[in-house]
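FAQ

Q: What does a record look like?
A: Structure on top, sequence underneath. For example:
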């Protein structure tokens, strides 16, 4: 018996947050819509039963777009774009607030719909998964003159099931491995299905930009560009040894494999989260002293949210960290490892407060975040968590730098 062919699918939902919102507001179908507002952008039900929507035209603030409908993308509006900038490109775009709980609910729904057809799933985030189709009945079959007909039909069945149970469309790439499937799922987005074999690599993969490979980021992309390598095909034409010379043994080998569509990674069905975090960008830059009360409140709230996330998911975190971004866009992080893992808001708040004391807070802040890492599954032995000593993170020159933190900044909010 020949070894069965490996068939891995990558499924990614189309304009995910926006598409979930359109289920609620079908009158927006086909219009440019962006997601990223706050509560004040909630649609208002009017006397005649219609809704009044906020538009980008009227937006003031520093929010960032999480995603945009394809109609909005036609104007050049995209994820991670500042809303004021997007307003210049498409002032008429409808702006909706982010409802993360709803997106999580739909995330669970679409994954359950996939699992009904194909249970070997690797969770890759809120709107995407890998699926191993190799061992499903029919996956290895040809259908009429289509050698990949069996697996194509399975992918189509998955798409139908997702649409039936959520009303949402997705795009799927099916290829012999994760690397190629991740690329393939984007080739015919939205609502696309792309099946590729090794034989399609020169025709379909090699003309694409190197950055389409998941694992070639902005830095590697720029280095490749400087070496006059823009497409995956150009990368594939370079000798392996030359790539190793340029990029080191490990990354050089990987680049060579990736360019030839080689990837042996398995679909990993159980993955545990590494960390949980919450962060917020302020409407205006805040100062540690002048805005002490406000910042303290926000800081406490972030800690409470992280604690709630941990409790909700059944985890405890042992490493508590903070992230600050200053008005000059410099970002600093600090963390501290506790003697015992915790999911307690006060313990997290206390540890995060300790971290904060190690940061120079002379500049105004744009962003504040709190993170719990070193996660373990929560058990029932609820011992009182006690903060331990700070470790790592402190850089030379930072010790004893100015600080408002020394005056006990933000500490006013910690009870006990
Ligand atoms: P993506 O799958 O990257 O994008 P998308 O689903 O909106 O659009 P498509 O896949 O059709 O190109 O991200 C999934 C969701 O994650 C997206 O709907 C919103 C969120 N997201 C952010 O919040 N910030 C970001 O910068 C990106 C890229 C996504
Ligand atoms: Mg998506
Ligand atoms: Mg995605």
């Amino acid at each position: 018996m020949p070894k069965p062919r490996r068939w891995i699918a990558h499924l990614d939902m189309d304009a995910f947050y926006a598409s979930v919102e359109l289920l609620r507001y079908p009158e927006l179908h086909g219009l440019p819509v962006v997601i990223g507002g706050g509560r004040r952008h909630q649609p208002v039900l009017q006397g005649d039963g219609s809704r009044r929507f906020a538009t980008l035209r009227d937006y003031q603030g520093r929010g960032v777009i999480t995603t945009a409908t394809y109609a909005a993308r036609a104007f050049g509006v995209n994820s991670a774009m500042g809303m004021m900038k997007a307003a210049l490109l498409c002032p008429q775009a409808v702006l909706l607030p982010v409802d993360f709980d709803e997106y999580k609910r739909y995330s669970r729904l679409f994954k359950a719909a996939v699992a009904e057809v194909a249970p070997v799933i690797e969770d890759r985030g809120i709107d995407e998964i890998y699926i191993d189709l190799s061992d499903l009945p029919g996956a290895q079959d040809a259908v009429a003159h289509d050698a990949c007909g069996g697996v194509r039909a399975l992918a189509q069945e998955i798409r139908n099931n997702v649409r039936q149970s959520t009303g949402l469309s997705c795009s799927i790439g099916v290829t012999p491995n994760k690397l190629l499937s991740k690329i393939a799922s984007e080739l015919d987005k939205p609502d696309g299905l792309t099946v590729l074999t090794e034989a399609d690599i020169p025709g379909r993969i090699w003309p694409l930009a190197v950055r389409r490979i998941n694992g070639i980021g902005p830095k590697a992309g720029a280095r490749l560009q400087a070496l006059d390598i823009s497409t995956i095909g150009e990368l594939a034409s370079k000798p392996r040894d030359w790539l190793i010379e340029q990029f080191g043994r490990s990354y050089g080998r990987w680049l060579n494999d990736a360019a030839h569509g080689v990837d042996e990674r398995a679909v990993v069905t159980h993955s545990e989260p590494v960390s949980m975090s919450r962060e917020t960008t302020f409407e205006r830059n805040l100062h540690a002293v002048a805005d002490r009360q406000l910042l303290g409140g926000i800081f406490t709230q972030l800690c409470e949210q992280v604690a709630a996330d941990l409790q909700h998911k059944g985890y405890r975190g042992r490493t508590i960290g903070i992230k600050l971004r200053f008005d000059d866009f410099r970002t600093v992080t600090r963390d501290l490892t506790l003697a015992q893992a915790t999911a307690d808001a006060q313990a997290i708040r206390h540890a995060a407060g300790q971290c904060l004391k190690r940061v120079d807070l002379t500049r105004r802040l744009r962003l504040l975040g709190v993170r719990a890492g070193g996660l373990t599954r929560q058990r029932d032995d609820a011992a009182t968590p006690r903060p331990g000593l700070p470790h790592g993170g402190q850089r030379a020159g930072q010790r004893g730098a100015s600080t408002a933190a020394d005056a006990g900044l933000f500490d006013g909010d910690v009870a006990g």
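Q: Is there anything notable about this one?
A: The pocket of magnesium ion (ligand 2) is lined by residues 12-13, 16, 127 (CB under 6 Å).
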